[in-house]
Write a structure and sequence with these properties.
The complex is a heterodimer of chains A (675) and B (295). With 675 residues, chain A is an alpha/beta fold. Helix content of chain A is 24%, strand content 29%. Classes of the chains: A alpha/beta (675), B alpha/beta (295). At the A-B interface, strand 2 and helix 13 of A face strand 8, strand 9, helix 9 and helix 10 of B.
Amino acid sequence: MGFLAPWFFAGAAALAVPLYLHLLRRHTSNPQPFSSLMFFEPRTQSSIRHRRLRYLLLLALRLALLALLVLAFADPFVNRPAATVSTNKLLALVIDDSFSMRAGSRLADAKRQALSVLTSKASSERAQVFALGSGLEAMSQPTDDSRALQAAISAIQPTDARGNFGDLARGLRSFSDSVRGPIDLHFFSDMQKSEMPANFADLALPAKVSLTLHPVASSTVANWAVESVNAPGQVWNVKKARVQAVIAGYETPAATRTVSLQVNGKTVATQKVQVPANGRATVEFNSLNVPYGFSRCAVRIDSADSLPADDISYFAVDRSDPQQVLFLHQASDKRSPIYFGAALAASAESAFAMESVSADQASSVQLPKYAFVVISDVPSLPSSFENDLARYVRGGGGVLIAAGTSMARASWIPLFNAKVLAANYYSNGPAGFLTVGDVDPSHPSIAKAGRWSDVRFYYALQIDGTGSQIAARLSDGTPLLLDKKIGEGRVLFLASGLGNITNDFPLHPDFVPFVEQTAFYLSGFERPGGSQVVGSFLQLRTAKERAVSVEVVDPQGRRPLSLQQATTAQTYQLNEAGFYEVRLANGRQDVVGVNADRRESDLAVMSPDALSLWAGKPGGRNSSAAAQLASSSTSVPQKFDAHSLWWYVMLLVFLTAIVESWVANLHLGVRREES
Amino acid sequence: MQRFLDPAVLARISGLDLIAKTVVDGFVAGLHRSPDFGFSQEFAEYRAYSPGDDLRHVDWNVFARTERAYLKRYRGETNSLLTILLDASSSMNFSSHSVSKIDYARFVAASLFYLAIQNQRDAAGLIVFDDEVRNYIRPSTRYGQLHRLLSGLEHAEPRARTDFAKPLHHFQQFLRRRGLVLILSDFYEPPENVIRTVEPLRFHGNEVVLFHVLDPRELEPQLGEPVVLVDSETSRRMEVTPEYAHNDYRQKIGAHIEDLRSRARGAGMDYFLLRTDHPLDGALAEYLTIRQERN
C-alpha cells in the first residue's frame, strides 16, 4: 500500500480542532433568561466529566471524519499483481482490410480465423473488434456479447486503403491508455512487407499488450499491376496527347501482357508488352482520342493473377478547344511574335492559339475572348483600347508587357502604372551584357524554368517597381520581371524584349518553359493530372469560398458529404478506387480517377524472424531489431497494477459525515428543547 | 367554545377587543341565564349624577322638570368601580410557550373590562405600573372607555422591575372612590411586602383581588444540564443545577404561593393563581363569583 500524495497527511493537524472544541475549551453554555432568580440559589457543579461522556461519540465521529478526509487527499493505493487483475483483460481482434487483402481469399481467411478465436474466448471475457486500413478503426464497443462481435467481424469489407503496421502500434498505444486491464491482441493480416514502417521500433506495443499474429498468407504470390499512368489531365489536341503506362511485375516470371487503353468503357487501343521477370515495362499510346468534356479513361492489363483490382489504373481527361491569346506588337516588329508563338506552340500541349495583331489594329479586337494578352514593346496604346484593357485586367484578365527599345522613349508604362526611370543599354558596358542576379523560384513563371543563368541581356528598361512583386533582377539590381495584381487580374512586366535583339532569351532553352508557365499563370487555367491515390485529399474550396455548397459523388454513386459538410468541408479524403465526380466551390465540375497505392500490389510477406520478433519472441537472426524491441519493451515497468482506494475512502467519509450530522443534530435538538 | 379560551389560541387573535369579546361572549353564552349578571334592562331607580358618570344615562325629562341631573339605573347594574393594576415589569415578559405572562394578563384584563363595561355598565379604569406608575386611565363609563382601556393594555410593554412600594402613593390618590381593585402581577416580592403595600387599598373600602400570573416553567422548571440563568429584571446571572431546580426551587415557589395566598386571605383579599397554560374561563368564573357575592 502506498500514497500518491502523502504530503496531505500534514492536514492531520486539523484533528486538534475537535479535540480542543470538545475537551479543552471551557464550556460556555448560552445564558437563558428567566423571570426572576428570587427563588434560586447559586450552585456550581463541575460537569466536564458528564459532558465528555455525553459527546464522546460525536468527538469520535468528527475525528474519524477528519482522518478519513486527510486519507482521501493522500490518495492511498494498493499494488496488485497483474495476474490478479486478469479478469479485466480485453481481447482485441484486429483484422487487416487493406488493399492487399483483396488478393485471393485473404480477407475471408482472416475473418474466419478471427471468428474461431472469438468462439474460444470465455463468455464473460470482453472483446473489441478493429479494422486496420488507412488507420485503426473500432468496429465495435468493448463487450462480451459474442453476437455483436461476430456481426462486427462480418461487417468488415475490403478497402482500397494502404495499411501501415505502424498505425496499428500507434493506435494501440493511445487505446491502451483508456483501458485499465491488459490487452490480448490478435492481429489477422497477410503480413505484407510493404506495410512495415520505416523504423522497426515503431512496431513496439505497450507493455500490457500481448500480441498474437495470425498470418493468412504464408508465401509471396506473383502479381502484375499497372503501376502508374502518365496522362494529361487536359487535352486540346488529341493527336498530340500521349499516354504512358508502367506495367510492373512483383515476384513474377518474364511474360507478355496485353495492355489496353479504355475511354468511357470502350477499348480504343491495345498493345502487347514484354514484362521482364520481377521487373517493369513501359507502354505508350500516341494518341488519346477522347470526346469533348470529361472522359473516364483507364489502362488495363490481362494479368490473371490473384489480385485483379490492381490490373487497372483510372484517370480522367478533359478535352476542350485551345484558348486564344492576343499578341500585340508594333507593325515593324516581326521577330517577337515569331519567337513567342513558336514557344507557345511547342509547349503547353497546344493549349493556346496565338493571334498576332499590330498596335494600330488594336482598337478593333474583342478582349474578353482572349485567355491573356501579350504587349510586346508598344510604347503607346490607343486610349479606347487602353481603357478596355484596364477593364479586362480588373475583371480578372492577364497581361504580359515586354519592354523593348521602343519603350525607352516613354516616361510612363501604361496599364502597369509605373514610371520609367532609365533605359539601360548594357551593350555599351565593359562586358557588353548583364546576366540575371536573383530570381524568385517560387514565382509560377520561373518555377520550372531554371534560373536563367546563361541568358544575356543587352538592354533593360528600369522602372519604379513600387507596389509590385519582383520575380527576377539583373545582376546590377535592375528589376527584370515584375508582377502586379490589379483588381482581379494580373500584369507581368518583362523589362526586356521578346525578340532576340535586346537579349538572347528567345534562343535560350529556358524561354519555352517560361512562356508555357506564364501562359498558364496569366490565363489561370491549369488542370492537375486526372488521377489521384487512395488516401489523398481533394481540395474542395479555398478559405475565401465559404458557405458555398460543394458536391462529391463517389465511385459507387453515393454522396458521402452531409449538408453541413457540403457547405463547410475544405478537403475530402478519397477512400475508394474509381472515378469521383466533384463540383467545387468555384463552380467548376471535375472528374478525378483514383487508384489504390501500388505499394499494396507487392504481395511479399514479412519474414518469419520479423514476425516472431514483433510477436515478442526474440531469438531470430535479426539481432539489431531484437535489441530495438527489447529496449522498448524492457523500459516499461510491469507486473503490478496500482489500484486506487480513493473512492472507498470517500465513501467512508460520506457515511461518517451522515452519521456525524445525525448525532450532532440529536444534541442540538436536546439543546433546543432545553432552551 | 372551550377551545377558543385556550391562551395559545387567543394569542393568535389580533386585537384585544376581539379577544375580550371572544372570551366573554363565549364564556357567558356557556352559562345559564342569570339576572344578577346585569343583562336585564328593567328600570330600578334614579341616582344623582356625579362627575364621571356617562351623560347618556342622564334622564333629561327629569332634568327639565327639576333642573337636577339624575341617572336612570337598571336592574343588573352594580355601579361598582373596577380598577385593574397591571404589573408591567420585565419579569412579566417571560414565557416558555406561545403566551407570555404579560399577554395572559392582558387577556384577563381585557375580558374583565369588556364584561364590566359592555355587559354591566360599570366604570372601569387601568393603572399600569412597574417601579413607577406608567399609565393611568381614570375609571369611567363614558363612550369609548373600553377602547381607551384596551389601548392602554396594548401599550403596556414590560420593562424595568417591580416595586409595589413606590407607586403605592400614587395608587392612593387615584383610588378615591371605593370599588373593586384587581392586581395582575407575578408578585416576585416577599409576600409580607406585597400585602403590606396593598393593604391600605383594602382599608379604604376597596375589594382587592390578587391575580398571581405565573408561567408553568416558573412553577416547574425543566433543566437538563447546568445552565446560567439571567434575571430579566436585574440582569443578574446565576449558574443553576438541575437538581436544585427540581427539588429546592419547587419547594420555595410553592411556599411563596401559599404564604401569599394565606396572607391575602388574612388581609381580606382574594387570591387566585393563574397559570398561563390554563384556559381563561377559570379566572373569569372566579371573578364573576366574587362579583356575585359582593353584590
